Amino acid sequence: MNDPSKHPTFFTKVPVKGAATSADDPVPPKTGNALPPQPTAAYVPRCVLLDTEAKVVSSILRERPPGRKWRYHPKCVHWRSAGAANNWAYGYHRHGATMMATIEKSVQFQVDQCGAAFGGFVVLHSLAGGTGSGLAGSYITEQLRATYPAATIINQVIWPFAQGEVIVQNYNLVLTLAKLTQTSNAVLVLFNDHLHRICQSRLAIASPSFADLNRIVAHLLARLLPHNLVPPAAGFPLITAYYGPQIPAAAVPFTTLTWSGVLNPLMQMARTHTPTDEGLPWDVRDAADPRACVWNGATVVLCGRGRGDAADGARAFRGLGGKVRVVGAREVESAAGEPDKWAAVVGPTSALAAPLARGACKTARAHVPGPARFRHQYARFGAARTDAFAGSDWCCC
């Protein structure tokens, strides 16, 4: 998204004079590190950037890819210096109220910039750490719902690696999802394990970094967010997405695509919860197969050339289950290095039940009578059993 003029959904044209400094931000850094200056630009993203660690915000602001024509608005960048200790309760109870008080003017500023076009919020956060789970994923989402009750709120969450990023990640993700099921219209779940596998097996990246994983997420969101992602069934807002083709940029000029070659593997990925479009279990061909995922409706997003063939091919997705919408089936020009045909399917699926149940089971087991384990680390910062173990009802073991 180096050219913001082509993405009016995500950017506002606002003249910003001068370079941003730490003095421009309403929350002075407590670490003594000045906010790195940013170049003057006419476009700012419609976002509020926040973290409980100044170094994280600073590193983001220092990223300046060649050709970028936008900058973060200095009044919409906020941080603290203490972190959240990988603890949902610390992020929710200790940082929540004070951080919300500092960002509410920034949120209102961005809402005002949208004018009549304002429809809601997208909250991007992780589930494993204390800031992503307790602050952004729980407290701020709750306050947005209270302040803007009619707004659509979509939370895009990153599910931690199965092997573990932090030892208490299952506590954090269950606590967060218990809150989000009450406040969010849609929770788009993307898995770190899946993103890592795509990078290694399909994009020829031997040792993927978090920047490589984030690049996939950003590309996917740019294509999905202009469309309505809210699932049809109330009460269970969790959704996930699959996309294809998955081709390294260097291979795009030498690849010829057809819509059937894109959509048939994508259908099978959705049916079998397979993140990549190779090595698919093609023997799972029927929704009645116990190995097949059950979908309660889906949205198929198409982008590329050949509108008629694409719409015809997308009809096959009706076999997933529920009502299937096909959107974006129009002629568009692909950016350099991107395939001229691209598709994604997004919606609520039974594939989310297994990782959710595993997380809930591990958390519930830690709260049976016996050793306190990590409970005291949450209780000391204000977490109650009612917070934690609304989520344990999902446990199926």
Q: How does this structure look, described?
A:
The protein is α/β, with parallel strands linked by helices and 397 residues long. It has a domain at 243-353: 60s Ribosomal Protein L30, Chain: A (2-Layer Sandwich), CATH 3.30.1330. The chain has helices at 54-62, 88-114, 130-147, 169-183, 192-201, 210-224, 259-272, 307-314, 353-365, 375-379, 385-388; strands spanning 11-13, 43-45, 49-51, 77-79, 120-126, 152-159, 186-191, 238-244, 298-304, 324-327, 341-347. The strands form 3 sheets. Strands 5-6-7-8-11-9-10 form a 7-stranded mixed β-sheet, sandwiched between helices. A two-stranded antiparallel ribbon has the order 1-2. Strand 3 (49-51), helix 1 and strand 4 form a beta-alpha-beta unit. Helix 3 (130-147) packs parallel to helix 4. It is globular. Mean pLDDT is 82; it is low at 18-33, 367-371 and 389-397. It comes from Allomyces macrogynus (strain ATCC 38327).
Question: How many extended strands?
Answer: 11
Would you tell me which CATH topology of one domain applies? 60s Ribosomal Protein L30, Chain: A
Strand order of the largest sheet: 5-6-7-8-11-9-10
> What's the SSE pattern?
EEEHEHEHEHEHHEHEHEEHHH
| Overall pLDDT metric | 82
Largest sheet, described in full?
A: 7 strands, mixed
Number of helices: 11
In percent, how much strand structure appears in the residues?
A: 5-15%
User: What helical percentage do the residues reach?
Assistant: 25-40%
CATH architecture of one domain: 2-Layer Sandwich
Low-confidence stretches: 18-33, 367-371, 389-397
The global form is: globular
Rg calculated over all Cα atoms = 21 Å
| Separation, N- and C-terminal Cα atoms | 44 Å
The CATH class of one domain is Alpha Beta
Structural classification: alpha/beta
